[in-house]
Amino acid sequence: FCCFLVVFFTFYIIVCRVVEMRIKLYSTIIFGLLLWCLYVVFFRNTSLGNYPSSNGKNFNKYMYRNHPVVNIALVVCGHRLQESLAMIKSVILYNQYNEESLYFWIFAEDKLKPEFDERLSEWRSLKHFDFDIKPLTFPTINQREWKTLFKPCASQRLFLPLLLPEVDSVLYVDTDVIFLSPISDIWQYFYRFNTTQFAALTAEHEDENIGWYNRFARHPYYGKTGVNSGVMLMNLTRMRINKWVSRIVPIYNEYKLRITWGDQDIINVFFYYNPEALLLLPCQYNYRPDHCMYINLCNVTMDGIQILHGNRGYFHSNKQPLFKAVYNAVENYKIGTNPYFDFLIPLKATLNENQVKETNCGMLSKETLLIAEKIFGRYQKDT
């Protein structure tokens, strides 16, 4: 761009010397407009735009020019801070060898912001990503009800299309989620959306015999067994076009006395009436205890477990210790150290313990480690 300016002004000076003063004024205006048009066409459109950083300033947009930006959104209240940090760490861990640039949009209580900022700033000095910590924002009407729906602040994600007006697409995840694959694996499902779809979720159950929605729900739900909202791809641009928020609020007002699982039930009602707007994801992108605690309901033999969801507190209980073992391995891993020796080897050792192997979910140790073996195996010879 600087070279362009030099050439432009050199040519401009030559023109000014050979024309009259009156022509000089017109040429100034014309060349100024031409300069602006060329800048917009050839330079401004090549960037991905400015994104606000955690300190309130704009980070360097040019560092993201040659890499796609993957947006991850999460909502954190109460005691969920450590869980959310483990989730973020798992994303960074599995994504450190990919070209995608990570951007975390964190909606959190004010009291949690200092520790978030301290920890993430420390990690950012070691690995390339960025983040923004935003305040919780709910509709003024029924604000208290929205904030306490099901779990504290969980319904915040329903309003992401309005809260992130500058973002086109985002992956929303619950805090009790651990990534066991690069985020690009699930992000590529955005490119599978047809013209009517603007969200993607996994089924709540694979077996109707043990499904919750088809046996107990008192409201409409998507498909045969409903959907689980713990991992959700959201095309925010299309959701804004389709007036998602203005259609969600009436659903809550009509069904609020009949819903059990809060925002997830509202999402199910919406997609019951609008099934053309939803893409169903494979179960390995939201693998939960229900998939393995009784019988194997999700076939992950070929692709492995991509995203592990320790809902109902399974990351912190010994009911199915595989979930706790994975969570602890991620939490204990230090960003910037060797992922093979400091993450994969300790996790393999824990999964090989009898208390893990003798459980139904513990029999899936190979599928749990499948992608990690491929990604981190290159560091086996490092010292």
UniProtKB/TrEMBL annotation:
Superkingdom to which the source organism belongs: Eukaryota
Cited InterPro entries: Glyco_trans_8, Glycosyltransferase_8, Nucleotide-diphossugar_trans
Predominant location: membrane
Transmembrane intervals: 26-43
GO cellular component labels: membrane
Topology in membrane: Single-pass type II membrane protein
Keywords on record: Glycoprotein, Glycosyltransferase, Membrane, Signal-anchor, Transferase, Transmembrane, Transmembrane helix
Family of the protein in this entry: Belongs to the glycosyltransferase 8 family.
Identification of the protein by name: UDP-D-xylose:beta-D-glucoside alpha-1,3-D-xylosyltransferase
